[in-house]
Amino acid sequence: MYYQKLDDFPKNFLWGAASAAYQIEGAYNEDGKGPSIWDTYAHTEGNTYKGTNGDVAIDHYHHLEEDVGLMAKMGLKAYRFSVAWSRVIPDGEGEVNQAGLDFYIRLVKLLKENQIEPVLTLYHWDLPQALQDKYLGWESRKTVAAFAKYCRVLFETFKDDVKYWVTFNEQNVFTGLGYRWGNHPPKVTDIKRMYAANHIVNLANATAINLFHEMVPKGLIGPSFGYGPVYPLTGDPNDVLASVNADDFNNNWWLDVYCRGEYPYFMMKRLQAMGIAPEVTAADQKLLKSAKPDFLGINYYHGGTVQTNRLQKKVAADDKKDFSSTDPYLMQPKEDQAQSPEIPMFNSVSSPYLEKTEWGWEIDPIGFRVALRQVYEKYRLPIFVTENGLGAADQLVDGQVNDDYRIKYLADHVLTMKEAITDGVEMIGYCAWSFSDLLSWLNGYRKRYGFVYVDRDDDGPKELKRIPKASYYWYQKLIADNGADVQEKHD
């Protein structure tokens, strides 16, 4: 769609930036904080790049005033942060650690004093280790009750000061990486357990939303989902069908539960046939249906491209050939086949049209517009972009960081967001990832996302000096102009 003139961003649009507790706070064992699964995982040799961890991170815990001061100088309208569950309730379900809670009370107070809207994420991957040890974490329904208690503490504490709340950050990512691929905690490689744990998280999400609406009637709450549109590689109807399948597999499996309270029929039938579907009781169905999010958080980095599943392609290549003895998927026992349920549905490929970042992520600002349109059209919930950004190996030269490549990336995405608003998408705000450099979960400190450079590396924290990058001043101007001149994004 081409427009001669784009609509303005809403006057109350929340220009923000984001972070996560484990990636920035440090102070991993101070003031009564208990260990999280990420503390344990990162302390285990071989799990992370060069053994990097969040013990110190960028030491936001001890640089709180300085960091909020930089946010205020930048003109941020919103700051999305997460609370470390084990800092507030060290064992996940017992006594509240007031010293830990006080840190977040100070943070919210400072944000409010500087006219920055706090956006509080309840869970950004750092489950208390005690719950993992006692209940196997998200594999037990008892963790739902523990999460509800934790939520109640935060709702009661911040009900008058925090309007926007996020329940879970990227549930599709932490369940997949933690329970299927085994490269996040709890380091499980069993897709049936992944779908079972994912269902428990869905129950926790619904429980939290219902409790929130009881306790914080003037607030707004919703999950934050890592969304990517799915493209067919060609116009071949088989590739188009594969993209429909992949959309169900990658997106609808989570979003339909969040927004409609039910699992999509196609995926549920496939998983049931493979014997890996979660157990969903009548009480579960009722709970999921009862919880209504107020908005949908979208984390956007890239989408994906697919083609016809490779089993069907082999049939098409030689429909007379008996390939049942040559295809590895069909040679596997049924229980092994179930570990890769997408194989009969679609085959993922690289897009021939898109450039990639240093870390191999496709750069697709138009896909951002596609994503916003698709999600809003389907669920008709206001959208809050809770993450979008570029990871790069930024270099400090003569005391400065010239990250024009990040400015270009962000400007292209902000422009397509403005086009989506002109299309009619209702949007609350945009939180770039991230405000400052931070620990990349598996890539250490070399992969930088921030507007603010933090002088540390994978070998140690150095002086942790904060240095605004070129993108900091670009975003400062963008916020001041409410995105009015984004067309002149990098001329």
Q: Could you walk me through the main structural features you see in this protein, from its secondary elements to its overall organization?
A:
- It contains 18 helices and 13 strands.
- It has about 500 residues and is an alpha/beta fold.
- The chain starts with 13 loop residues before the first strand and ends in an 11-residue tail after the last helix.
- The protein has one domain (about 15-310, about 345-490): Glycosidases (TIM Barrel, Alpha-Beta Barrel), CATH 3.20.20.80.
- The chain has an eight-stranded parallel barrel, surrounded by five helices.
- This is Glycoside hydrolase family 1 protein.
- It comes from Lapidilactobacillus gannanensis.
- GO terms for molecular function: hydrolase activity, acting on glycosyl bonds.
Kindly summarize this structure in a few lines.
It contains 18 helices and 13 strands.
Number of domains: 1
Shape descriptor:
globular
The major sheet is characterized as: 8 strands, parallel, barrel
What share of the residues lie within helices?
A: 40-55%
CATH architecture: Alpha-Beta Barrel
CATH homologous superfamily name? Glycosidases
How confident is the prediction overall: mean pLDDT?
94
Question: Could you give the order of strands across the largest sheet?
Answer: 1-2-3-4-5-7-10-11
The name CATH uses for the topology is TIM Barrel
* Distance linking N and C termini: 23 Å
Name of the top-level CATH class: Alpha Beta
Number of strands: 13
Q: Which segments are poorly predicted (pLDDT under 50) over 5 or more consecutive residues? A: none
Q: Per DSSP, what share of the residues sits in E-state strands of 2 or more residues?
A: 5-15%
Number of helices: 18
Instruction: Please state the structural category.
Output: alpha/beta
- Please compute the radius of gyration using only Cα atoms: 22 Å
Oligomer: single chain
